[in-house]
Amino acid sequence: MPLDDSDVARLACPTCRGALSHAGGALRCGGCGARWPIEGGLARLYREEEVRGNDRLLRHIYDALPSWHDPSVRYLLALFQAGSERAVRDGYMPRLELSSLRLRPDGSPPRILEVGIGTGANLPLVRRDLPCGLPVEIWGVDLSAGMLGVLRRRLAASGHRDVRLAMADAHALPFPDGSFDRVFHTGAAGSYRDPARALAEMARVAAPGTPIVVVDEQLDPSRPLPLVQRALFRLVTFYEPRPHAPVEHLPAGARDVLTEQVSRFFYCLRFRMPQAS
Ligand SMILES: C[S@@+](CC[C@H](N)C(=O)[O-])C[C@H]1O[C@@H](n2cnc3c(N)ncnc32)[C@H](O)[C@@H]1O
Ligand SMILES: [Zn+2]
Hints:
Layout: H1 5-8, E1 20-22, E2 26-29, E3 35-39, E4 42-43, H2 53-64, H3 69-81, H4 85-92, E5 111-115, H5 123-129, E6 137-142, H6 145-158, E7 163-167, E8 182-186, H7 195-205, E9 212-217, H8 227-236, E10 255-261, E11 266-272
Parallel strand pairs: 5-6, 5-8, 6-7, 8-9
Antiparallel strand pairs: 1-2, 2-3, 3-4, 9-11, 10-11
């Protein structure tokens, strides 16, 4: 679903945070004048030259093989870590506290952001855990046009119209401060070129007090795993020497920090930012 003017009003220039508006097949920033192209109906809200290192390497893989992602997670990863994809996802979903979401004070739907939404595998679980009948506005951003292409075809086939998408980088989210009532990310934090900056961005766009949930690979430190499983873990995290929950990169002032192991291969990190005093 292309972004209409009211959707664009929710966005902000990822460079200067100025307001954006439609201008001749692109979005134009009223602050710095930057032009952000719309390609195939999706706004590209990042600068190619800023995408470096593992972000760039992995985007090649996601763009080349987007339809392999879901089967790999469902079957291969599940086999490697001896636990189902569903068990992993059910392990972190409660940390989003979706059941306590309500309409915003002005009566508008609460807003949920998934950073690195990929093909949208979390969406059915998000919908499952929301209070019955509550309208929501879901936003998803991702660097990979290929992954978003798969998701857009799925959304079109399912008729869900509550999801807005943009191509954007976790390191420079295209939203104003405090925009979202829930913010989460699953599956790429270990490859972020600057995890502190990406976490700071998630914290910035979250409303004060909202849970911010980050999930990615970490070998379960509490139990010795067989050599073969450790070798398979190394294989799936080839890009990072020590994949782990990035607690050392949490923004200053983060509170209510909780790190859990949700399966042999995955951690879940939850934190909140304080209300402004
Ligand atoms: C392993 S997939 C997970 C997708 C989805 N969250 C899930 O749980 O199935 C990781 C996704 O993060 C995206 N990604 C990686 N680095 C990113 C970045 N710096 N900014 C935005 N998205 C990124 C990838 O393109 C990919 O779609
Ligand atoms: Zn700008």
